[in-house]
């Protein structure tokens, strides 16, 4: 029996969250390093804007086919069938895999052919020369979608088997290939400009998103059947259809930055994208990991009709996530400028670019707790096999905000796009909370007070952190290089924030300290 199997359900969920959290953290750092390389070589604007804009159509295709949600829709149905009839389960898996592979291959080919006619609608602010180059990038990246969707089927199989290690390696392999090709191909004269990064996306998609989970799933046994029909296929499509048609604000958020950022001015797509990369680090490490790890357990509890433990598990997931993410968010808002400068500044990314991007990052960071809420609440709905509610809520909010984006971006620039990005997630999370009370109201017990207390708890550490960081920067700016000054600012402000936070939490909310330090204390005991 494996170590993971010996743990109880709560320990397994915690271990899974830890594995996925570590994976997301490493992946985000690799992504930031990749963007550092890009910003150093290309700065903000030019080919950088084109590179980020090239993902609009491939990502939309992935969302349209519910590629990001295959695991969510497939896991409950396949897990249930595995318990009842293994042969039927493999026929169902094969049918989903075949239809998913065929659909994404055909649509990718059609979009590849008509790419020159589509790109003007993806980046309405670009020139004809930029659109021609964007078409080249798009045609390199599009075939990667053929790997993502079938690979997601194998990943779902691994989640059912409670094998989290390989899915945790997928984003690391993906980002690693982008970095390798982005640096190596231009060096050897195989690609020019940012083409190397585009080829890295394709190679990373094949090796990381498809081949790696396939090999892992095959080692545990796969029984492919040439079956295009199955009774559960209709049920699967009904679950996936709302996700396919309901393009939620949380899945289109990055695309709106790219599309409307192109209308906000030259370089705005890059500046907004760089800011969003940093903002998504706490979202991915805390919220995404908690949501992915809790989903199989929530689905299992719902299948057993154990709503008491379902709501208890959901309550703990929300509570623990908020306790961890609130101080992290407050600190990042305080240290936004030096963090951006340390990560991206240098080469063609100037200090002026840092000054322009920092307010965008601070605005986006304010929505991080609400990103966390919607991530976990969304998984709770999906565990109940309810994909319609999140899709409808997200679609309505998206449609309502589209005109605001369209008129706000040209009039007010990148700041308007950053604000609307944060506001849309805030609104989506609140509506989801309101709608969710019908299903899991007991999970909300004490949540508003907890949120308010944590907001108040981080206010004083935030102010102390800001003052300490600025003081350190002013004291050292004439002595050390800009890079070391930024690093000192981050360290001093971080230590000041941590000291103030732990003193106040020890006095008023000691449970926060126990939760944050629990993983480290367990390791010390061992």
* Share of β-strand residues: under 5%
Round the Cα radius of gyration to an integer and report it.
Answer: 23 Å
Spans with pLDDT under 50 lasting ≥5 residues?
Answer: 1-9
Largest sheet: none
Provide the helix percentage. over 70%
Gap from first CA to last CA: 21 Å
Average pLDDT: 82
> Counting H and I runs of at least 4 residues, what is the number of helices?
23
Q: Can you count the beta strands?
A: 0
Q: What overall form do the CA principal axes indicate?
A: globular
Keywords, separated by commas or semicolons:
disordered N terminus; 23 helices; mainly alpha; 0% strand; 526 residues
Written description of the protein model:
The chain is mostly helical and 526 residues long. It has 23 helices and no strands. The protein is globular. The relative contact order is 0.11.
Helices and strands in order:
Elements: H1 3-6, H2 9-42, H3 47-53, H4 56-64, H5 70-84, H6 86-113, H7 115-122, H8 128-141, H9 145-160, H10 165-187, H11 195-219, H12 231-245, H13 249-264, H14 268-303, H15 307-334, H16 336-344, H17 351-365, H18 368-383, H19 388-412, H20 414-440, H21 447-476, H22 482-508, H23 510-525
Helix pairs in contact: 2-10, 2-14, 3-8, 3-14, 4-13, 5-6, 5-9, 5-12, 5-14, 6-9, 7-8, 8-11, 9-11, 10-11, 12-19, 13-14, 13-19, 13-20, 14-15, 14-17, 14-18, 15-17, 15-18, 15-21, 16-17, 16-22, 17-20, 18-20, 19-20, 21-22, 22-23
């Amino acid at each position: 029996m494996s170590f993971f199997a010996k743990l109880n359900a709560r320990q397994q969920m915690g271990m899974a969250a830890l594995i996925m959290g570590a994976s997301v953290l490493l992946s985000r750092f690799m992504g930031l390093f990749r963007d550092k390389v890009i910003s150093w070589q290309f700065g903000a604007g030019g080919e950088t804007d084109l590179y980020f804009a090239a993902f609009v159509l491939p990502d939309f295709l992935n969302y349209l086919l519910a590629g990001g949600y295959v695991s969510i829709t497939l896991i409950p149905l396949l897990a249930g069938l595995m318990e009842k009839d293994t042969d039927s389960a493999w026929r169902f898996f094969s049918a989903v895999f075949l239809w998913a592979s065929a659909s994404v291959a055909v649509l990718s080919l059609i979009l590849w052919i008509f790419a020159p006619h589509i790109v003007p609608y993806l980046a309405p602010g670009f020139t004809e020369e930029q659109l021609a180059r964007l078409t080249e990038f798009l045609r390199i990246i599009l075939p990667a979608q053929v790997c993502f969707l079938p690979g997601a089927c194998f990943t779902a199989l691994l989640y059912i088997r409670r094998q989290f290690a390989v899915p945790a390696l997928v984003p690391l392999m993906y980002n690693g290939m982008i970095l390798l090709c982005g640096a190596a191909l231009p060096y050897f004269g195989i690609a020019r400009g940012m083409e190397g990064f585009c080829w890295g996306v394709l190679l990373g998609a094949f090796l990381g998103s498809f081949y790696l989970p396939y090999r892992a799933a095959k080692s545990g046994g796969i029984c492919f059947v040439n079956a295009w029909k199955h009774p559960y296929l209709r049920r699967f499509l009904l679950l996936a259809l709302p996700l396919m048609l309901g393009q939620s604000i949380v899945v289109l958020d990055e695309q709106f930055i790219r599309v409307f950022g192109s209308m906000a001015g030259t370089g705005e797509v890059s500046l907004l994208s760089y800011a969003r990369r940093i903002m998504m680090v706490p979202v991915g490490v805390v919220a995404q990991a908690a949501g992915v790890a809790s989903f199989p357990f929530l689905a299992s509890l719902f299948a057993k009709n154990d709503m008491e433990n379902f709501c208890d598990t959901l309550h703990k997931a929300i509570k623990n996530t908020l306790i961890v993410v609130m101080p992290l968010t407050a600190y990042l808002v305080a240290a936004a400028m030096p963090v951006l400068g340390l990560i991206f500044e240098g080469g063609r990314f100037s200090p002026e670019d840092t000054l322009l991007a920092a307010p965008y990052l601070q605005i986006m960071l304010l929505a991080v707790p609400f990103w966390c809420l919607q991530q976990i609440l969304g998984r709770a709905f999906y565990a109940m096999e309810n994909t319609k509610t999140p899709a409808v809520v997200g679609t309505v909010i998206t449609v309502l905000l589209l005109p605001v984006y369209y008129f706000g971006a040209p009039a007010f620039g990148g700041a308007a796009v950053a604000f609307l990005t944060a506001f849309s997630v805030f609104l989506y999370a609140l509506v989801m909370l309101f709608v969710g009370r019908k299903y899991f109201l007991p999970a909300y017990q004490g949540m508003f007070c907890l949120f308010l207390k944590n907001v108040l708890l981080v206010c004083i550490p935030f102010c102390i952190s800001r003052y300490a960081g600025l003081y350190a920067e002013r004291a050292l700016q004439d002595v050390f290089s800009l890079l070391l000054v930024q690093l000192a600012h981050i360290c001093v402000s971080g230590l000041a924030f941590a000291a103030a936070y732990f003193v106040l939490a020890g006095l008023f909310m000691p449970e926060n300290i126990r939760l944050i330090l629990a993983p480290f204390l367990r390791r010390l005991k061992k």
